[in-house]
Amino acid sequence: MTSGPALRKVDSHSSIHEAALNEAREITDILEELLKKEQYEKALETAYIGVEHWETRTLQHAASEEEGLYKELAEESAELNEAVIGLTRDHDLLRLLVEEIKELLGTEGINDQVLQRFQALILVDVLHNQEEEKILPEH
Length: 139
Known about the structure:
Layout lengths: L4 H4 L1 H27 L3 H37 L4 H27 L4 H24 L4
Helix pairs in contact: 2-3, 2-5, 3-4, 4-5
């Protein structure tokens, strides 16, 4: 599978990341406010919206990168193999955090641990995007 042109251009790729990340930040901020106000039912709904967002936006995008762009980059340059492995590991961490959130929501409901994992998702994604953009301009 070859990657689409948007994935290979740093500006458009960055825009994809930034849009999804801004939405994730908004959802997480809303979740934090609802928890502070002890509005647990709305917070629980918001957490599930957050999970859906990460699964359908960021993780779906990550899968596309792994199936196309990352394979292409690794094939083009052996020097990029290590970077591709690291970027794929970042995706795995995002998937693990989302799974932990779903498990926590199912067993304990909404709590600060869920919020912390959403905040961790954002941090990992920011760092991941910075690393990914370092290798994109060259290609």
